[in-house]
Task: structure prediction
Amino acid sequence: MKADFGVIGLAVMGQNLVLNVEDKGFSVAVFNRTAERTKEFVENRAQGKKIVPAYSLEEFVEALTRPRKILIMVKAGAPVDAVLEGLYPLLERGDLVIDGGNSHHDDTERRIKEAEERGFLYLGVGISGGEYGALRGPSIMAGGHREGYELVQGIFEAIAAKGPDGPCCAYFGPGSAGHYVKMVHNGIEYAIMETIVEAYDLMKRGLGMSPDEMAGVFGDWNRRELGGYLFEITERILHYKDPETGEPLVELILDTAKQKGTGKWSTQSALDLGTPVPTIAMAVFARIISAFKEERVVASKVLPGPDPALGTDREEFVRRLFGAVYLSVIAAYAQGLRQLRDASSERCYGLDLSEAARVWMAGCIIRSVLLVPIRKVLLDNPELPLLFLAEPFKSAWAEYHGDLRWVTARAHEHGIPTPAMDSALTFVDAFRTERLPANLIQAQRDFFGAHTYQRIDKEGTFHTDWEAVA
Ligand code: NBP
Result:
C-alpha cells in the first residue's frame, strides 16, 4: 500500500500537520533530514497510525502514490532549495511539490519556474495557526499551479480550520499568491500585537493596573467587538503565574522582541509597491527598538521625560482606550488588505480579497470577529480602497476617532510610546485630508533638483528658477 500524501520536515509544524492529515483518513509517508527525529516521531506520536516512515528520499518517494503530493515543511530559505535539489531527480512528470513554510515570495516565484521546467506542479502555501493550528485546523493560503491545488484540495479542506463561511483554505492565484497573502497576514499580526502591547503599557505604567486587572479588560474586549485569538491569548498570558515564583510570568520576561522576517518582508514589499502600511511598519520598528535593550537602559538614565502616571480616571481611560484599540486594529486590517489589492494588480495574482477575509476567520493568528463584516464589505465592493470608507467601519471611525486622539495625546503627554496607535490615527487623518502639504514638498524638490511640479490652476508640467525668484 502506497501513501496518499508525503511530508518532508518533522519539526513542530510538520509533525502536527502529518497527524492532522492522517486523522482525516489519509495515509502519510514522512521523511526528515535527521533520522533520529523521524524515529522519535514514529515511536512517540505515530503508533497505530497510517504513517509510513522513510529514512532516505528514495524510500520516501517510492512510498507515495502517483501523482505524488509532497509537502515540504522545513526552515524557510536555503533548506527548501536543499530539499528540492535532492527531491527533483527522484520525481516524475506531474508530481506535486508544496512548500508549506514561510518562504519569501521571490523565492517561490523562482522555484515555480524551476519546477515548471522539470514538468512538476508546485504550490507555495502559507499555513498559519502555529503548533495547535497545524494539528487541529490551520488556515491555509495556497498559490501556484491551479492543477496542483486541485490534487490536494480535498486534503486541505479536510485538515483546515472550519470557519463560519467554510473551511479556512483557498487557492489565491498563480505564482507566489499564497505566500504573499500569508506574508501580509503576518504583517497584520505584527500590527495587532503592537497595538495590544501599547494598550497594556498604557494600563500598566499609565494607570498602575495589575496583570489580573488588565486581563479583565482584554477579556472584556475579547467578548465584544474585538473578539479574536490575539486578545484571547493576551487575557490568558496576563493571568498566568510563574510556577516557580508565583509572580505573573509576563512581568518576568525580558522586554526584547524578536522578528523573524515576514513582518519586515511585508513592509519592504509595501515600500516597493508604494502602498501605505504605516501601522505594520511601526510594529516592525517597535520590535527592532525593543531589541536595543542596553542602549535603552543607558538612554533611560540620561534623557528626561514626563511621569508616565496618567492621573486620569481609570474607568474613563479604559473605556476610551477601547475605541483607540478598536480603530487601530481596523487600520491594521485595512492597510494589509490595501497592500494585497495593490500587490494583486502589480503582480497579476487576481486575488479575491473577500477570500482572504474568509480564510482568516478561523485557525490563524489574526482570526477575529471583525473579519465577518470585513468579508461582507469586500464582497459588496471588491475595489474598495480603504475599509474605513464603508459601513460599519465608517461609523466606527466617526464614533471612536475622538478616543484615539484623546488616548494618544495622553500617551504623548506622559511619554509612553504608542507608535501603532499614532500611525493608525495619522494614516486615516492623511487619507481623509483633501489638501495635504505635499505641494510644499514638490516646491522643495523643484527648488533643489528641478524635479518639476503640476499646478492646480492650469494643465502642464512646470519648473521654476527658485533662486532667481527668491
Ligand atoms: P523549523 O523552521 O524550525 O525547521 C526545522 C526543520 O527544517 C527540521 O525538520 C530540519 O531538519 C529541517 N531542515 C533544516 Br533547519 N535545514 C535543512 C536542510 N538543509 N535540509 C533538509 N531539512 C532541513 O520548523 P517549523 O517550526 O516546523 O516550521 C516549518 C516552516 O513552517 C517554516 O518555514 C516556518 O517559518 C513555518 N511556520 C512555522 C510556524 C510555527 O509556529 N513554528 C507557524 C507557521 C509557519 P533536521 O531535523 O534535520 O534539522
